[in-house]
Design goal:
The chain is α/β, with parallel strands linked by helices. The protein has two domains: 44 residues, RecR Domain 1 (Helicase, Ruva Protein, domain 3); 143 residues, Dna Topoisomerase Vi A Subunit, Chain: A, domain 2 (3-Layer(aba) Sandwich). It is 42% helix and 14% strand. The chain is built from seven helices and seven strands; from the N terminus they run αααβββαβαβαβαβ. Strand 1 and strand 2 form a beta hairpin. Helix 1 packs across helix 2. The structure holds zinc ion (ZN). Zinc ion binds next to loops.
């Protein structure tokens, strides 16, 4: 069963999916009706259609500016810096934050990907454009994340940005916003601390 084996090989590369889970999913799909499989196929094939990157926050969106950046009901003076779109989605789903976001992208000093000048400029432009009253650093609390945090802090300091806070974490090192429960996120946001 060539196609099934190929599918298992693809599935086991998914985040959090090992070989056994990949096999279970593949056999589950095999038991479904054709319409269901076609629908999944079409969804996957069209996943990146009509998507763009928001020119203000870096979020993946169907419009530029994205629906968050263009929402007049949000608090436009508070900007929350997150690692990636998954962190943004988790915070949005919690319903605990009503300000705007900025997606930093992958900054990993250990992996040789330092905060590039381009990334820093994109962020500072966003902060100045909003004339933000508060910038919240919400990068994930892992060792590399912490190094990225200090690099980020330097960039903000050198640019004269004031009132920078950081999420307080009840999370273990290596934990991430993406997997935090609502109570943990709520505490992290409510007890954020001023770092600059
Ligand atoms: Zn945006």
């Amino acid at each position: 069963m060539e196609a099934l084996n190929r599918l298992i090989n693809i599935l086991k590369k998914f985040p959090g999916i090992g070989k056994k889970s990949a096999r279970r999913i593949a056999y589950y799909l095999l038991r479904q009706e054709g319409d269901y499989l076609s629908e999944i196929g079409t969804l996957i094939a069209g996943l990146k259609n009509n998507l763009c990157t928001c020119g203000h926050c870096g979020n993946i969106s169907e419009s530029n500016p994205c629906s968050i950046c263009s929402d007049p009901l949000r608090d436009r003076k508070t900007l929350c810096i997150v690692d990636d779109a998954e962190s943004l989605a988790a915070l949005e789903e919690s319903g605990l934050y009503s300000g705007l976001y900025h997606i930093l992208g992958r900054v990993s000093p250990l992996g040789g990907e330092d905060l590039s000048d381009e990334t820093a400029e994109f962020l500072l432009r966003h902060i100045h454009e909003l004339e933000a009253d508060e910038v919240i650093i919400a990068t994930n609390p892992k060792l590399e994340g912490d190094m990225a945090y200090y690099t980020l802090l330097d960039v903000l300091k050198n640019a004269g940005v004031e009132n920078v806070t950081r999420l307080a974490y009840g999370l273990p090192v290596g934990g991430s916003i993406e997997f935090a429960d609502r109570a943990t996120l709520s505490t992290a946001i409510a007890s954020r601390t001023k770092v600059m």
